[in-house]
């Protein structure tokens, strides 16, 4: 299935954003013991006890998803919003000499989805997953990946090819990039795959696969 032009444009914009961020993010911050002093913003981020991955983070992300695959004949379109809380890092998987880190954090989200096209109107639920994050030496930017799932409720109609019941489970994969605007506030953008089904509690159970882009803002505390 060829994605709509709007999806292709959104993916191109996401790629351009990532390419613009990564060169600046990959640089190593100045050594506090020598060289010119870092700007006030960098001094805050580079404090030994203030690495962003060691803080709690609350994010609000919205986006747009289109149906992929042939599990259902309906051309679903979904506008998802995620209210997400990330924990401080549970585990530092790897840390390089430059200061880069690969860490694992906990992630819990409330899901508020408007079903723009499809037999249902909404989906309210929750999901949980680990958040695997690669932090660049600058500590201003990071890549993140989450794979997880949860459950929620929709207003099922019983139509063939639609969701078979109100109780519906979700499974998602999200890959994105985060870039700090200040010591506490960051912008996030990514690609998002979302699956809905009821684990064959009804027959038929066509399921629903969607894919698209998300963007949002986060605050650490």
The computed structural class is: mainly beta
Helicity level: 10-25%
Distance between the termini: 42 Å
Low-confidence stretches: 22-32, 37-47
- How are the strands ordered across the major sheet? 1-2-4-5-6-7-8-9
- Give the overall average pLDDT: 85
Shape: elongated
Structural description of this entry:
The protein is mostly beta strands and 221 residues long. It is 12% helix and 50% strand. Strands 1-2-4-5-6-7-8-9 form an eight-stranded antiparallel barrel. The protein starts with a helix and ends with a strand. The model is unreliable at 22-32 and 37-47 (pLDDT under 50).
Brief write-up:
The protein has helices spanning 5-25, 40-45; strands at 57-67, 77-86, 91-95, 101-117, 122-135, 141-154, 167-180, 185-197, 208-220. It contains 2 helices and 9 strands, in the order H-H-E-E-E-E-E-E-E-E-E. It is elongated.
Give a quick set of tags describing it.
mainly beta, 8-stranded antiparallel beta barrel, 221 residues, 9 strands, single chain
Write the layout of secondary structure elements.
Elements: H1 5-25, H2 40-45, E1 57-67, E2 77-86, E3 91-95, E4 101-117, E5 122-135, E6 141-154, E7 167-180, E8 185-197, E9 208-220
Antiparallel strand pairs: 1-2, 1-9, 2-4, 3-4, 4-5, 5-6, 6-7, 7-8, 8-9
